[in-house]
């Protein structure tokens, strides 16, 4: 009701994770709001399976898989890292305001990621507690070599949760220039959005817990 009232077309609903996967295959949505605790199959596994589906290309060559926002009542650290590592583009609590929910859907639909500095800090804490052998490396050092020194600088700050406006202020650049740098970073590292970029930065070792912007 909240989304439809704001002009967003709701193409399907599902009562559990398995039904969600089928609904995505049938309706081809742009954005999925995914609960975590559900019968049959939980939202994290459903997210993994949806994003593991072949990415049918569209006219401009973009990834046609949906963007997924994890929407839950459970504000627990264990879900933050797992949801983003599974490929989710954002993480919201169910007590979010209607305006924030609508804004989040539109933001993620445009290819951005819903990742606040607070969520980033918790992701880092969770990541730091994991044994090294359990961390899949999504952006090896060899791939990072493709980035220019300026792109590496932007990547490190992006991984700390800075927005484009904050990046622009910190680096004394225009927001348009920052957006260009971010887009090139994502393309070179074959990442879908900023959420994946944050996970990749820590899993590659480029950024470590306790790092702060200079």
TrEMBL record:
Domain Response regulatory: from-to ranges: 1-109
Which SMART domains does the UniProt record give?
A: HTH_LUXR, REC
4-aspartylphosphate modification, residue list = 35
List the InterPro entries hit by this protein, alphabetically: CheY-like_superfamily, NreC/VraR/RcsB-like_REC, Sig_transdc_resp-reg_receiver, Tscrpt_reg_LuxR_C, WalR-like
Q: Which UniProt keywords apply?
A: DNA-binding, Phosphoprotein, Transcription, Transcription regulation
GO biological process, any: regulation of DNA-templated transcription
Q: Which residues form the HTH luxR-type domain?
A: 140-205
Query: Could you name the domain of life of the organism this protein comes from?
Result: Bacteria
Molecular function (GO) terms listed? DNA binding
Protein name stated in the entry: Response regulator transcription factor
């Amino acid at each position: 009701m909240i989304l439809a009232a704001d002009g967003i077309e709701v193409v399907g609903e599902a009562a559990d994770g398995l039904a969600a996967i089928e609904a995505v295959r049938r309706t081809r949505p742009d954005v999925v709001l995914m609960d975590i605790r559900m019968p049959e199959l939980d939202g994290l596994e459903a997210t993994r399976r949806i994003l593991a589906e072949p990415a049918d290309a569209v006219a401009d060559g973009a990834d046609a898989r949906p963007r997924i926002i994890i929407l839950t009542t459970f504000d627990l650290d264990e879900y933050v890292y797992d949801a983003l590592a599974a490929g989710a583009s954002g993480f919201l609590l169910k007590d979010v305001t209607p305006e924030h929910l609508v804004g989040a859907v539109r933001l993620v639909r445009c290819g951005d990621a819903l990742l606040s500095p607070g969520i980033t800090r918790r992701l880092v804490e969770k990541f730091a507690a994991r044994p090294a052998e359990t961390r899949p490396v999504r952006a090896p050092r060899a791939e990072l070599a493709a980035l220019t020194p300026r792109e590496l600088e932007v990547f490190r700050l992006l991984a700390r949760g800075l927005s484009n406006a904050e990046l622009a202020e910190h680096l004394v650049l225009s927001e348009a220039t920052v957006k260009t740098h971010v887009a090139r970073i994502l393309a070179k590292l074959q990442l879908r959005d900023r959420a994946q970029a944050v996970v990749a930065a820590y899993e590659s070792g480029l950024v470590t817990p306790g790092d702060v912007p200079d």
